[in-house]
Amino acid sequence: MTTARTPVIAITGATGHVGRAVASRLHDAGLATRLIVRDASRAPSWADDVAVTSYGDRQAAPVALAGVDVLFMVSAAEAADRLAQHQAFIDSAAQAGVRHVIYTSFAGAGPDSVFTYGRTHGATEAHLVASGMTTTILRDSFYLDFLPELAVDGIISGPAGPTGGSVGAVARADVVRSASAVLTDLAAGTSAHDGAVYTMTGPEALSLTDVARILTEFGSPTTYRAESIEQAYASRAHYGAPAWEVDGWVSTYTSIASGALDVVTDDVRALTGREPMSFADLLAARG
């Protein structure tokens, strides 16, 4: 009688927030992982299988992914060529013989996404499907962890509508727990997640007025101030950022205003067995 081989799991972004936390959880659970990094010196000290490549390196990436069965692909840092990086890495994974890819996408990803980066995520998903590899897509809403960063000098300013629209933002920790659950299931041989698309949200949809109120309740006096789209571009011009980046900043707000992110799902609880964190939970945990 032969024993089934344990799948080899590779994790990208292993020096970032999500990838590193997922890698740590799987390590603590006793699962062997290969960490894919750009700089080996930044890999966790416990890692004993580290491969170095960037997403766009068509020579190094197939070598780094050789022998990998399951790939956790954290989306690349925002860049003008982000889609090209994703497509190159997906091609490298298929070339290396990867069987299954779990990809961190964005809620409502697709060519018509109001959030400009959501269009890149949609095109990445399409490239994954065309690759022939089996996929699981985690479509993350905006991170709850990111919301406090919207406030500058106690004011959240943007074109999200009079009260700040509504967004079912999700805690980064819940995305980590969800991804870890999917990877653990795949390591055990389940096919339950094959072709699945999960939308990762928190337990409630918040307006930016709600966000400001909750931040105030936790000791950071904050207000929301609505801007027109023209005002939003003008107020951000002094940063001197490239047009694609400013479009991303402004469309963060317009995507919330559109109602497309006014979505709350049960997917985090279904994957992890626990209720997702609220914004108040997150701030309380930070202390």
UniProtKB/TrEMBL annotation:
Presence of the UniProt keyword Oxidoreductase in the record: yes
Documented EC number(s): 1.6.5.2
Domain NAD(P)-binding as annotated: residue spans: 13-185
Superkingdom of the source species: Bacteria
Keywords for the protein's UniProt record, in alphabetical order: Oxidoreductase
EC supergroup of this enzyme: oxidoreductase
Molecular function GO terms recorded: NAD(P)H dehydrogenase (quinone) activity
InterPro entries: Ergot_Alk_Oxidoreductase, NAD(P)-bd_dom, NAD(P)-bd_dom_sf
CDD domains: TMR_SDR_a (cd05269)
Keyword Oxidoreductase included in the entry's annotation: yes
PANTHER family associated with the record: PRESTALK A DIFFERENTIATION PROTEIN A, PTHR43162
Name of the featured protein: SDR family oxidoreductase
